Amino acid sequence: MPHRTVSASAGSTDRPSVTVIIPTVGRLSLLPEALWSVRQQTVPVSQLLVIVDNTDPSVQAQVSALGEGIAGFACYTLPEGRGVSAARNLGLEHATGEFLVFLDDDDLLHPEMVERALQLFDDEPGLGAAVGRYQVLFTPSTLEEYPAVFPFNYRQAATDPLHHVDKTNLAPAHVLATAPTTAFLRYLIPVNSCLVKRTAIGALRFPLELVQGEDTYFWVRLAAQGCTFRMSAAMFAFVRRHGGNTTRSASVYTRDIQACYRALQADAPITAAADRFLIQLKLAYFDWKTRGPTALSRHLGLLRHPELLRREVMLFARTTLRDRRQLLRYYFSA
Fold first, then answer.
1. Among the listed residues 211, 194, 189, 174, the one whose alpha carbon sits nearest the alpha carbon of residue 85
2. Count: domains in the chain
3. Does the pTM exceed 0.85?
4. Domain boundary among 196, 221, 246
5. Which domain covers residue 233, as residue numbers?
6. Domain final residue, candidates 221, 246, 271
7. Tens digits of per-residue pLDDT, 27-79?
8. Is residue 103 a contact partner of residue 150, using CB atoms and an 8 Å limit?
9. Which residue among 12, 244, 257, 326 is buried most deeply as judged by most CB within 10 Å?
């Protein structure tokens, strides 16, 4: 059984209960800021679960100590290093909130994230998940101590040009509402920018076999089982770029992400022809990146869908041009 430490309960109120689940490998320089961003919520969360995926007893003790005095805090430790999916799944087993947020230990929530997300559920009671905008934060990995970047820039998050620099690839609201599978396949939607109703998840869990794209797989499967999504124009979350990101190596990411799309191709009940084609196109692209031009011969079937192929090429060209324009505006406006 996983080790557990618990702080005092947050108490009962009339507001909806919210659980935040944070998996951590023990990034003790970053985790305190993630916890701080949860404690700053204008609508307090009722439960904060930290799942430690690290068998070092000293790390476990330090993480548990960070939660002392935080109402509703509980810390669980996986019996062995098993990955972020296993950590989130363990959090799901112990979550008591009506709504859930999955927050990575190096990312942050906007202080009004929960309040803004719950407003969408007030407006549409049958909603399954609320999704918000996000900003990218850049933290130099050479620093011995990470600066408290969050307090001084979140108020300018809506206008700060830095959120354009990292190709944020924001999902259009109408696509997320009408074609959520397409949105999660095509656009970058960070896991911590979503607040989801626990009943919408049901028995679904994160895939243990994936080391990249486990969140994309989870959201696509959630959409396939009928969960409805709505996009808020408000800022919900902050994604940190630093030297310890799992996506820091493009070659490793390209190699590992293919398993996600193969799993979706095999397991997910994706009915739209355009979505199935997009998955195949992504696999062809990643295959070419890792194996070279000869790999394309195994994907000649894509040519049987010229209209879909033309559409994807045009969308890619428009997105690339937009990103380049944003970068030029940023660098030449300084």
1. 211
2. 2
3. no
4. 246
5. 3-246
6. 246
7. 888 899 899 999 999 999 999 999 999 888 898 899 999 999 898 999 999 98
8. no
9. 257
